[in-house]
Amino acid sequence: MTEQKLGVCYYPEHWPVARWAEDARRMREIGLSVVRVGEFAWSRLEPSPGAYDFDWLRRAIDTLHESGLEVVLGTPTATPPKWLVDSMPDMLAVDAHGRPRKFGSRRHYCFSHEGYARECDRIVTRLAQEFGAHPAVAAWQTDNEFGCHDTVESYSEAALAGFRDWCRRKYETIEALNEAWGNVFWSMELSSFEEIELPNLTVTEANPSHLLDFQRFSSDQVVAFNKRQADIIRSYSPGRAILHNFMGAFTAFDHFALSRDLDAAAWDSYPLGFLERSPNSEAFKSRYMRVGDPDFQAFHHDLYRGCGRGRWWVMEQQPGPVNWAPWNPAPAKGAVRLWAHEAFAAGAETVCYFRWRQAPFAQEQMHEALLLPNSEPNEAFHEAQQVARELAALSAHVERRRADVVVVFDYESDWAWKIQPQGQDFSYNELIMRFYRALRRAGVSIDIGPPTAETVADRKLILLPGLFTAGESLVEGLSNSAAVILAGPRAGSKTEHFNIPAALPPGALQSLIDLRVRRVESLRPGAIIPMSDGHPGHFERWREFLVLGDEAAIAMASRDGECALAQCGHHYYLAGWPDETLADAVVSRLLVEAGVETSRLPQDIRIRDNGGLRYVFNYGPETADISSLVSDAGLLLGETKLPPCGVAAFRKDSLTEK
Amino acid sequence: MTEQKLGVCYYPEHWPVARWAEDARRMREIGLSVVRVGEFAWSRLEPSPGAYDFDWLRRAIDTLHESGLEVVLGTPTATPPKWLVDSMPDMLAVDAHGRPRKFGSRRHYCFSHEGYARECDRIVTRLAQEFGAHPAVAAWQTDNEFGCHDTVESYSEAALAGFRDWCRRKYETIEALNEAWGNVFWSMELSSFEEIELPNLTVTEANPSHLLDFQRFSSDQVVAFNKRQADIIRSYSPGRAILHNFMGAFTAFDHFALSRDLDAAAWDSYPLGFLERSPNSEAFKSRYMRVGDPDFQAFHHDLYRGCGRGRWWVMEQQPGPVNWAPWNPAPAKGAVRLWAHEAFAAGAETVCYFRWRQAPFAQEQMHEALLLPNSEPNEAFHEAQQVARELAALSAHVERRRADVVVVFDYESDWAWKIQPQGQDFSYNELIMRFYRALRRAGVSIDIGPPTAETVADRKLILLPGLFTAGESLVEGLSNSAAVILAGPRAGSKTEHFNIPAALPPGALQSLIDLRVRRVESLRPGAIIPMSDGHPGHFERWREFLVLGDEAAIAMASRDGECALAQCGHHYYLAGWPDETLADAVVSRLLVEAGVETSRLPQDIRIRDNGGLRYVFNYGPETADISSLVSDAGLLLGETKLPPCGVAAFRKDSLTEK
Amino acid sequence: MTEQKLGVCYYPEHWPVARWAEDARRMREIGLSVVRVGEFAWSRLEPSPGAYDFDWLRRAIDTLHESGLEVVLGTPTATPPKWLVDSMPDMLAVDAHGRPRKFGSRRHYCFSHEGYARECDRIVTRLAQEFGAHPAVAAWQTDNEFGCHDTVESYSEAALAGFRDWCRRKYETIEALNEAWGNVFWSMELSSFEEIELPNLTVTEANPSHLLDFQRFSSDQVVAFNKRQADIIRSYSPGRAILHNFMGAFTAFDHFALSRDLDAAAWDSYPLGFLERSPNSEAFKSRYMRVGDPDFQAFHHDLYRGCGRGRWWVMEQQPGPVNWAPWNPAPAKGAVRLWAHEAFAAGAETVCYFRWRQAPFAQEQMHEALLLPNSEPNEAFHEAQQVARELAALSAHVERRRADVVVVFDYESDWAWKIQPQGQDFSYNELIMRFYRALRRAGVSIDIGPPTAETVADRKLILLPGLFTAGESLVEGLSNSAAVILAGPRAGSKTEHFNIPAALPPGALQSLIDLRVRRVESLRPGAIIPMSDGHPGHFERWREFLVLGDEAAIAMASRDGECALAQCGHHYYLAGWPDETLADAVVSRLLVEAGVETSRLPQDIRIRDNGGLRYVFNYGPETADISSLVSDAGLLLGETKLPPCGVAAFRKDSLTEK
């Protein structure tokens, strides 16, 4: 039974030694248990080549330890020092325009550079040797936010050599590659692996198969880079959890694949910053500017719980205005508390605030923290303290349960549709969110997983919108399932090599749904395909024209007489991009058919179950009445007149008892 | 008398040999006569340096021939294979930022690279030797879509050397160049031709004279590149028509000049893709999203008929959604048929669909075709078949007649106003379209030609809006004409060297119209210059202030008292950019004065005469009544209640007979 | 007592010698006194290395002199000739992407290139030797529009070496630099000055301290470049005023610093071009499209009067449509006259029109002039003549008086907030204009100065919105002042090294205003913070949360209960970005408190005092009644029914006498 904890990110190297003990004392005082340190500190750990200085870090960790705090130790490989870069300038990544990405901020390295990878082995080994057995060290973080600032892809010489090698291992013969990519088209045929180029700076778009393989290669390089560190740490610091802090709305490498080398996943949750950067409407952004998108964090909590095979953290939690969004408003009072509770409700083991004290210098000086730069408490300081108290009162701990509903999320699908959107606004992430929101508005628990048999096993409802290609084991898993299944739009529309399936889309899914897609079209903004009379909603952005086989029937038609939702027993195929109304209608219908219990929720209310403990959150600007969900008597936290940013909690079995 | 034919583009190298005969049989079955093959196939024709393989292509051509199909053979020079590029990497074009444009798609070559040009001579020679006398080969296509993906201009070393040489040949002395360009300005004077740079990466805009000469040079390089191929083909394959497939809305080289080395012009017509990419309003794009701009194809048909001196084809016709526009909707039912008939009505010899079967791989896998990737017929398959039947029923053939009305179209003018728009939205192409649409709405036949005496000879109405400079022979041709002439805005406003004429604009046109332009202004969106009372419409984007000479009179004034339309006998000068209303008013007035018969047409109806055969097209979403144009009894095709995408045809003399 | 004069820019090298005398005669005839020549003429002054040709220029100057005209002689260093560039190609600046900025327009040099600087020493020395004592030469202009086309910053090898050296001189030890920049953050610590890089092409944003120092260095390089020329000229041409022609809305180097090496400042005033390029709303741009922003020129007049320590010119005045704005409309009739009078009212010594005759060639051929290319008078010719007559009638001369109100303008603050806007639309220039407009609408005289004790001495009202950091001497000056002072938003929020002050913002200003800023937030468009009941207006874009000390009180609160305007005696701090309404309210309140007399002006009316002479201008499209300001009897110029573009003038003491 994992106790749920609060923590904070701390940079002792930014502050005088004299302040450390007081900092530790205050952390403990407000109920923090976990402190992340060390990532970014390479220039202090090794000020010049081979001259290590671990004393200051040991002292810092000891100080934290003495106050009863646990430590997450980060490897400093996201920020190689200048002397290292100067010793091998070709370790820098190269952007798609062919320009080296220079020293002067962070993440200035190419994942394919073996020389740099060996330097990382070295510093990680030394760090793990020094601190792997330290009693305060409870966990490790590899590097920091892999891929941030578009650093997954590099067009360097090292990447070129690596990609050629990767292709050789994958295809074995150049003929196989030519065949897989369809290189006969436009005379792109190659006669050796040495003729392969990176897919940048082509005259017009490169071959999608080429682009997809390059993205797969780039993702694999990140996975391999992480694994070297994880293996080293594991050997010197056994029994400690190894984590990485992933990001939101970031898909350039396969997080499921990388997570297989971790003990738990973590992500950095900045609700307001992400909202400002999102593709949502201006009205939506204005409504939620101080509390964030009610479903965005939720989605990532579920995603990273899937990545971590149940184990996950929030490694960085927004404490106030940040410095990196187009606009950086202050959170509403209570929002910082709300976010933490939603994470714990989703099963987070630990939520760490970023960061303890606002740095008065350098790039992130406008990023707030629990303390002001002058050490006065900021607003989040008090909200964190309140959360700590409430966690204690609830004896909060992780209660894992498998959700009835699963959404299949596939990184390759996102790559594929970025490579070939076909309509300018076709976004896999937005499509997934369209369905995720509908499910969340229906008040059900949702798991998110990769396209595997394991993901779909033992579910009542399975959604796989936009799934680029359906692999053999997934199809087998689906075939063995009694669940209601929804595929489409665009599901199964490509082979693994980014070709159109021989029997037309949905390709391998045809074994589940007897139809073929004869035509697709993308729709300009404002162009819609209404459903037939009596059915609310419409398609937008994308629609498909189906030819139904004998086994399939029309479950819903569009007004122009085409099949909009096809049905084969408990398997469905949706032939377009639903607007919110249609998404709600389809999802509701399938939930009923699947026998999943739903709740009718007011507009801005969301609910979450951590095992038997149900949380209710108010993301709206007005007080909401949740007495249809629970009575005041049953509440462990909050009240039925739930104010803006309000959080309520109760045990579900208390309802039944009543 | 040229019979009008349907054809298709076919890539035998993309499919198993076993499928070829069946493909040929089905093509013939639905009434296709012409098949384009071979462009892009270099890597199959010469898999390694000097190792030719023509057998497969001969077999393909033989197979088509056996089914009674004619072949258009394309030269494969748009897609040099990787081994060739690796043998001379400096053959790649260089973009304006100085980056090589790499292998991996198509058109990866610099027109100025002599080494590559020699390789093209070699492969074209071999191809022409092999197939020049083949009985199936009825025509040739040089390369493919010259200039596509902005490939006319290159900033390579080869281009620099070529440009210096071009300048030397044009100006002979550097002093003459300095004088022509006005290089005394900003100390840009050069002391030798070796000091000339390409006009990219300058600190602020380069000298317009420099830019214009660079565009002329770049255009000349394309013309020369094509001519080498045409000369070779002509020597080995006499009697076969040599064509090139031009594009829509593309002006970076002089298509009239290049066409002089061809036997007929051709273009690739994608109505929906071009509409989505066009500068039209969102409302316009939404209205016509499934049928295309009613005047865009029409304009290009007339333009390329002009390029081909009467002989022209559609080499690629859109068959369904394409893959390259921002959004790619499906055509309305009947649109594919409508487009073909409009092309034949405009005198096309042949219309080829692109392509026979949708490729399931590589860059264009989302581009539809007559067949689905699995060989099932797609919608266009049936519409093509219908068109073939209707052509037969009409005994359709090309009937050439010189139009009373001509619009002068000048590639240099487009370059000039792109170089010096003076107002952000001054677009030569849009200006020309403003007048072209007004003429087409008036139901008249229109020719389009270059600014030559031949173009303007024997006309009733001549329009030359925006003509950058008026050359001596054109002015002489105009002087000798009895036609009504409309010049302006901006006509004759520069000398050949991109200077302001000594006696002010309209320069050489002053011999026809006695006025000078003392001032021009560009107008921000929303700023308009209304006409005086009783005259509908206004100027927008651009207006000029005229000083009239003794011979000139005000034919229309603006509300602020300036001359808006000046008249000297049957010569007119329009002092601004007319909105649609004003364009209609001016054009109507001039058509009446010129004695050209006009028709009043419903909003979305357009008409076309192929000699004595008049076609009527409905581009709108509602059925239109065309009984004011013809009775049902007179119709060879269609009905007077013309449905959306409807086509009607009748012989004009049948009306008179009545 | 400096007589106010009209002048013109003239390029004798563009025209036949035979035309010069006639040109001079006509200039004099319409009342021009001053002619600027020579800048840009390097290729004529030194056609090949070391081969000087000064004869033509001497002849031109003699010709002007003979007609009684004074000459401003420009150094030609903005346009080095091709042979010079070819002799040292690394003199070209390099853009932020790493590309050399090539020959072919102007300003193609890097300020840090010592080789080029020596070439400039040479040509300037020779020019000064030749013409320094010529009786016609009344003044000099160094170079031309330093920084135009983003040329202040260069990322060349020369700039890198220069920047390292600059840092070494500033910080002495690398430890000091690491400390100042906070390089411990993200392991950016450096071990020697040779490790410093330029802040371009970093993976994500560079350190703001690094960026600010690079901008300071770049600015210093411009200042040093100018000083070399000024020193040379001063030694060979003593007693002549040395000027430079600055630009509008341009802040990339410190104009106050550079001006210290000049005798007078000058700027190039293009009201319509600047309006089109401005961030104002479309409605605003449409209203003023033919007369310009009523406050933009005014602001720059005041700014450059501050730069010139009272002495300033308009070196280039727009005469008609220009060639470089997105749209280039014609000025309203009378606008050219209005602009000149507003400049003289602001104390300009000389206003020169750009240019005498429109060039028919090269980049600026669409830029109008007093004469058309064919030497006919254009509209501005007549308006200039009228202005000259009116100046004579008024016996116009410069009357200097110190304004009661001063706005502190700080170039570093603009750099700082461009580096770290924190909200996408935070613009220092727009913030300053918000306050400047409110002051000008109140009809008061305004000085603008740098953040020094001298600037703030002897004032009644001092505004320092957005002032990045407050230096010691400024704070002392403010402390010693009895003026009403308004600071905020964002004032004093950083240290000189771009860190947050130890005691929080407003840092050093806390000695004046007893408060600290605990939080800031940026607000998306549409998000506003209304003032409490009874107070009109709101904050937008930016707001701050204050903690007031014992000495401070709330002078105005926002509706959400925060302090919006804090007061400590006569010192105020505004906690946000005011909309126009709030800006007017705050400014009015402070003007009253400061005892500054204000005027209630109709919407588009502006007033200006040149000492005792008050001018009234009508920038609106309708006739305005200004009889509340003056009676017709008192007017020296104009009438109380002031038409569009109308100018009135009267002596203020004539009112008192009445």
Set down the secondary structure blueprint.
Three copies of one chain form a homotrimer.
Chain A: E1 5-9, H1 20-29, E2 34-37, H2 42-45, H3 55-66, E3 70-74, H4 82-87, H5 114-131, E4 137-141, H6 157-171, H7 174-181, H8 208-236, E5 241-246, H9 255-259, E6 264-269, H10 271-277, H11 282-287, H12 296-307, E7 312-317, H13 335-345, E8 350-353, H14 379-394, E9 405-408, H15 411-419, H16 428-441, E10 446-449, H17 453-456, E11 461-464, H18 472-479, E12 484-487, E13 515-522, E14 528-530, E15 538-548, E16 553-557, E17 563-568, E18 571-574, E19 576-578, H19 580-594, E20 605-610, E21 613-618, E22 624-625, E23 641-642, E24 647-651, H20 652-657
Parallel strand pairs in A: 1-2, 1-8, 2-3, 3-4, 4-5, 5-6, 6-7, 7-8, 9-10, 9-11, 11-12, 12-18
Antiparallel strand pairs in A: 13-15, 14-15, 15-19, 16-17, 17-18, 20-21, 21-24, 22-23
Helix pairs in contact in A: 1-3, 5-8, 6-8, 8-15, 13-14, 16-19
- Number of DSSP-assigned strands of chain A: 24
Helix content of chain A: 25-40%
Main sheet of chain A, how many strands, which sense, barrel?
8 strands, parallel, barrel
Counting H and I runs of at least 4 residues, what is the number of helices of chain A? Answer: 20
Strand content of chain A: 15-25%
What fold name goes in the CATH topology slot of the domain at 405-594 in chain A? Rossmann fold
User: What's the Cα radius of gyration of chain A?
Assistant: 25 Å
Largest interface: A-B, 50 and 60 residues
**Spatial gap, N to C terminus of chain A:** 27 Å
CATH superfamily grouping of the domain at 405-594 in chain A:
Class I glutamine amidotransferase (GATase) domain
Largest sheet of chain A, order of strands side by side?
A: 1-2-3-4-5-6-7-8
Tell me the quaternary state: homotrimer
CATH architecture of the domain at 405-594 in chain A: 3-Layer(aba) Sandwich
